[in-house]
């Protein structure tokens, strides 16, 4: 018996037999023939008891002492071992690499099933590409009043002539949701909580309006070079690599931990996450990009923006995007709530202490 999320048992068995880390899925995890398995990008989490691999769940809150299966690994009674590693191909020519990315991205967003689907929309190129693939799906954005993400989403939705649902946040929303998010994700540090909160709250609203699937642009920044630190890595202390491709690989390797947090938050909100820009075909094409199609001068996500030409309006294709915790003002307002509750900035980890007080 097997219980897998995201792929058939036959496909995963074949991937194990031939060592193919990207066998054409959007991620998978679960039990296969008595062994726990998780895909190489870590798009779907799975957990077992730390001292008993036979006791497992997709939800860590079901377990007494949950231990996450690392991406690309299997775990059973004999131990844990790595079975796949993320490919590190030589860069293709500029023309071939761009053609591959354009084909992969276009195919992934256009093959989305719109049944019961809503789209997380921030007005950036990532979420706009996802939205372009499902023209009948409603778009949802969240943030505090006058936040960057709400303003950008309104502008982009108008340019795309799309229906936008705005989930305006309040301090009470944060106070209520912090414990729920922390318990669901097993994360209490301020950065993780601030990232997961807007995802949870916007997905919660989509679920309340009858949608059980939520499409996001997850993975685009990591795969295509959306972070400032990949532009000039040799002079940026935030990365160890000295090349654009090397710095981009470092960010891709952070995906399993990030996706575990995000997927658990979204599931706790009542929706199933859908991430077309993390399909194996997109991952494979992105990994073969040369430096200049990842980041060049002041432009980031060069290849992804080129792939978006003709699919989204030019104003949206070129738009800058802030990280969700800053674009929604959630990070700022968590800090404000902490200070109002007596946790001053001069105190060590004052926001973390405030989060801890809400959990008590």
UniProtKB/TrEMBL annotation:
GO molecular function, one term: ATP binding
Keyword Nucleus attached: no
One GO CC term, this protein: cytosol
Presence of the UniProt keyword Protein biosynthesis in the record: no
Domain Asparagine synthetase: 115-235, 252-341
Biological process according to GO: asparagine biosynthetic process
Swiss-Prot/TrEMBL keywords: ATP-binding, Nucleotide-binding
Annotated region (Disordered), positions in chain: 52-79
Pfam families the record matches: Asn_synthase (PF00733)
CDD domains in the cross-refs: Asn_synthase_B_C (cd01991)
Taxonomy, superkingdom: Archaea
The protein, known as: Asparagine synthetase B
Organism (species): Halorarum halophilum
């Amino acid at each position: 018996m097997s219980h897998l999320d995201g792929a058939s048992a036959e496909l995963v068995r074949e991937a194990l037999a031939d060592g193919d880390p990207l066998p054409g899925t959007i991620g998978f995890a679960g039990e296969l023939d008595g062994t726990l398995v998780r895909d190489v990008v870590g798009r779907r989490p799975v957990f077992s008891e730390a001292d008993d691999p036979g006791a497992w769940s997709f939800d860590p809150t079901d377990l007494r002492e949950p231990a996450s299966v690392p991406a690309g690994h299997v775990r059973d009674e004999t131990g844990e071992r790595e079975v796949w590693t993320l490919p590190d191909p030589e860069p293709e020519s500029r023309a071939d690499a761009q053609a591959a990315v354009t084909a992969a991205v276009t195919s992934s967003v256009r093959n989305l099933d719109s049944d019961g689907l809503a789209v997380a929309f921030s007005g950036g190129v990532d979420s706009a590409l996802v939205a372009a693939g499902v023209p009948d799906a409603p778009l949802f954005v969240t943030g505090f009043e006058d936040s960057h993400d709400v303003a950008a989403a309104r502008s982009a939705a108008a340019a795309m002539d799309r229906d936008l649902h705005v989930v305006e946040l309040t301090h009470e929303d944060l106070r209520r949701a912090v414990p729920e998010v922390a318990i669901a994700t097993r994360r209490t540090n301020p950065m993780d909580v601030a990232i997961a909160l807007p995802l949870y709250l916007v997905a919660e609203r989509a679920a309340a309006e009858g949608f059980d699937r939520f499409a996001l642009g997850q993975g685009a920044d990591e795969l295509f070079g959306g972070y400032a630190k990949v532009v000039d890595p040799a002079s940026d202390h935030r990365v160890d690599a000295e090349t654009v491709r090397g710095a981009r690989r470092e960010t891709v390797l952070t995906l399993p931990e990030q996706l575990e947090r995000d997927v658990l938050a979204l599931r706790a909100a009542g929706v199933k996450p859908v991430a077309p820009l993390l399909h194996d075909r997109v991952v494979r094409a992105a990994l073969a990009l040369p430096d200049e199609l990842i980041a060049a001068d002041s432009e980031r996500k060069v290849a992804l923006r080129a792939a978006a030409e003709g699919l989204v309006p030019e104003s949206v294709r070129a738009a800058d995007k802030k990280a969700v915790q800053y674009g929604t003002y959630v990070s700022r307002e968590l800090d404000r709530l902490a200070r109002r509750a007596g946790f001053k900035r001069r105190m060590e980890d004052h926001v973390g202490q405030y989060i801890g007080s809400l959990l008590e």
